[in-house]
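Figure 6 in text form: structure in, sequence out.
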C-alpha cells in the first residue's frame, strides 16, 4: 500500500531523511517535505560572492566520518568534493597569533611541551603539575571547563580548548559537557587513563600507514551542490514557507497543522520525521510526547553572524612561518593593541584554505564569524557596524586594510545547539520516548553531533526507523 510520510524541516537532516525514505519506501510512497523558510538547506547556505558560490553557513565537513562522502558518492557528486590545502591553522591568544599546536585533542595537549608556543610558562607549569594529582574518576558527566581548569589550569581552556570548541559549538567551555563534546577524552578517562595528558595521548588518532587522509572536505561549488542533488534524488513534494504549528496523533497516523495561525491547512500522513531545531521539536512534541518535549526544552542555542568578504585580487592573506594560514581562532577576551576588544571569534582565510576559492575576477575570499553562547550584544549591531568591526579585527590581526570588493552579512539566530552537561543522557531519554510512538522519528543537530555528517546520520537513521514502522506496524 502506498504510504505518505511528512518530513518537517528542510535542513540537511530533513533532506537526508527524505532521500533515504524515497530509497527505502520506493517510488510509490508520497514524501512531503514541509519547511517554514522560503528556501531549503537550513544552516547550509551558498551565496554568490564576487561571482563565486561561497558558503556562509557550514563551509566544510569532517571527512573522517563517512556519511557525507557516502552520500556524495550515492548522488554522483563525489568528484565535486575538495579538500583543504595544507594551510596552517592559527590562534590569537595571550595577545599573540600562534600556529595551533598539533598533538592535541580539541586543544587538550598530550604533553605540556607541545603547547609551549601558546601557553605562558605558568600555563605550561600548570599542565605539568597535574602529574602530582590523584587520578581522575570521571563520574556521570562534567563541564569541559570545570574538569580542565581544575586539572591543567585556565590557560589550556581559555587559549586552546574554548577557541576550538567555539569553532564547532560557538559555546562556553564552562557549560559544554565533556562526554558529548570531547567524547574521545571522556572515553580514555573512563578506560582508566587517570590524567588529562595521558587521556589525550590515548585519544589521539593513531596515524594510518600511507598518505595522510584529509580531515575536512567541502563541495567545490558549495553545499548547494549537495542540496540540489539530494532534492532531485529524494523526489519529494516540497512545501516552502509553511511552518508546521502542531502535530496530532490521529488513530494510526498523524495530522500536521501547517501554515499561518489564522488560516492553517492540515496534512494527514502515516508517519512523520521531525528534523527541526530543538525549540521547534519541543513545541511539536508537547502534545504527542510531552516527556521528550520537556527534555528538549533544556537544549540551549547559540546565535552567530558570518561575514563574507571578497578582497581585491592580489590581497595577501596571512602566512605563518612561510605556510599560508587557513584561518585564525580568537580567544575570548583578546584585545587590539589599542585596547578595543575583538568582535570576531574566528576568521577563515578561505582562499588560503581552499585553493579553488577565488572570486570570478581573482578576488580573495574570507569569512569572519561573530557570536558565542551568552554573548549577544555584538549580534544586535546592524550589518554595517558588524562589517566595520570585523574589518577592524582583520586589520589588527593581519594588517589587511583593503576595501572589500563585495561583502555579505548573514545572521544565524539560534544557529547551534549547546551540548550541556548530561547531553548524552538527555538525548537517550528523548529518543527512548520518541521510539515508543510508532510512525514518529526525530533527526537533526540537537542529537548526536552538530556537524553535517552527524546530521545526515540522524536523518538517515530516522528514515530507517520510519520505514520499519510502516513495513512492520506491529513492532
Ligand atoms: C554559521 C554556522 C557554521 C557552521 N559550520 C559548520 C561546518 O563548517 N561544518 C559542519 O559540519 N557543520 C557546521 N555547522 C553546523 C551545521 O551546519 C548544522 O548543525 C546543520 O546544518 C544542521 O542541520 P539540521 O538539518 O539538523 O538543522 P537546520 O539546518 O537548522 O534545519 C532545520 C530546518 O527546519 C526548519 N524549521 C524549523 N521549525 C520549523 C517548523 N515548525 N516547521 C517547518 N520547518 C521548520 C528550519 O527553517 C530549517 O530549515 C555550522 C553551523 C552554523 C550555524
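Output sequence:
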Amino acid at each position: 500500500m502506498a504510504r505518505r510520510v511528512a518530513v518537517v524541516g528542510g535542513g540537511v537532516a530533513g533532506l537526508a531523511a527524505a532521500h533515504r525514505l524515497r530509497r527505502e519506501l520506493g517510488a510509490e510512497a508520497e514524501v512531503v517535505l514541509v519547511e517554514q523558510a522560503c528556501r531549503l538547506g537550513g544552516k547550509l547556505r551558498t551565496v554568490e560572492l564576487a561571482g563565486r558560490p561561497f558558503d556562509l553557513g557550514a563551509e566544510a565537513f569532517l571527512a573522517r566520518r563517512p556519511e557525507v562522502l557516502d552520500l556524495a558518492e550515492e548522488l554522483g557528486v563525489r568528484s565535486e568534493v575538495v579538500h583543504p590545502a595544507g594551510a596552517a591553522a592559527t590562534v590569537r591568544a595571550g595577545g599573540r597569533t600562534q600556529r595551533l599546536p598539533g598533538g592535541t585533542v580539541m586543544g587538550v595537549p598530550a604533553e605540556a611541551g607541545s603547547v609551549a608556543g601558546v601557553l605562558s610558562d605558568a600555563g605550561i607549569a600548570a599542565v605539568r603539575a597535574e602529574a602530582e594529582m590523584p587520578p581522575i574518576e570521571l563520574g556521570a558527566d562534567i563541564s569541559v571547563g570545570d574538569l580542565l581548569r581544575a586539572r591543567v589550569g585556565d590557560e589550556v581552556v581559555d587559549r586552546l580548548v574554548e577557541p576550538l570548541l567555539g569553532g564547532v559549538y560557538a559555546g562556553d567551555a564552562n557549560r559544554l559537557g565533556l562526554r558529548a563534546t570531547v567524547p574521545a577524552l571522556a572515553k580514555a578517562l573512563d578506560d582508566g587513563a587517570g590524567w588529562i595528558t595521558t587521556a589525550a595521548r590515548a585519544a589521539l588518532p593513531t596515524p594510518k600507514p600511507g598518505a595522510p587522509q584529509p580531515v575536512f572536505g567541502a563541495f567545490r561549488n558549495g553545499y548547494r551542490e549537495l542540496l540540489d542533488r539530494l532534492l532531485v534524488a529524494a523526489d519529494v513534494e516540497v512545501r516552502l514557507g509553511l511552518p508546521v504549528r502542531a502535530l496530532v496523533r490521529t488513530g494510526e497516523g498523524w495530522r500536521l497543522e501547517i501554515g499561518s495561525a489564522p488560516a492553517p491547512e492540515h496534512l494527514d500522513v502515516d508517519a512523520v520525521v521531525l528534523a527541526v531545531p530543538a525549540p521547534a521539536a519541543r513545541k511539536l512534541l508537547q502534545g504527542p510526547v510531552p516527556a521528550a518535549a520537556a527534555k528538549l526544552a533544556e537544549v540551549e542555542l547559540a546565535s552567530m553572524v558570518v561575514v563574507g568578504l571578497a578582497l581585491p585580487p592580489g590581497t595577501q592573506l596571512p602566512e605563518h612561518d612561510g605556510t599560508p594560514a587557513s584561518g585564525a581562532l580568537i580567544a575570548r577576551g583578546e584585545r587590539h593593541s589599542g585596547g578595543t576588544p575583538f568582535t570576531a571569534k574566528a576568521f577563515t582565510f578561505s582562499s588560503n584554505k581552499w585553493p579553488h576559492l577565488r572570486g570570478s575576477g581573482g578576488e580573495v575570499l574570507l569569512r569572519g564569524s561573530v557570536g558565542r553562547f551568552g554573548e549577544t550584544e555584538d549580534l544586535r549591531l546592524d550589518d554595517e557596524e558588524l562589517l566595520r568591526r570585523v574589518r577592524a579585527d582583520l586589520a589588527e590581526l593581519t594588517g589587511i586594510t583593503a576595501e572589500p570588493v563585495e561583502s555579505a552579512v548573514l545572521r544565524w539566530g539560534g544557529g547551534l545547539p549547546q551540548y550541556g552537561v548530561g547531553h548524552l543522557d538527555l538525548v537517550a531519554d528523548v529518543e527512548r520516548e520518541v521510539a515508543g510512538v510508532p510512525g514518529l522519528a526525530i533527526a537533526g543537530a540537537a542529537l548526536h553531533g552538530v556537524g553535517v555528517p552527524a546530521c545526515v546520520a540522524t536523518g538517515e537513521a530516522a528514515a530507517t526507523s520510519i520505514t520499519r514502522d510502516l513495513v512492520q506496524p506491529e513492532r
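Caption detail: DSSP finds 15 helices and 23 strands in the chain.
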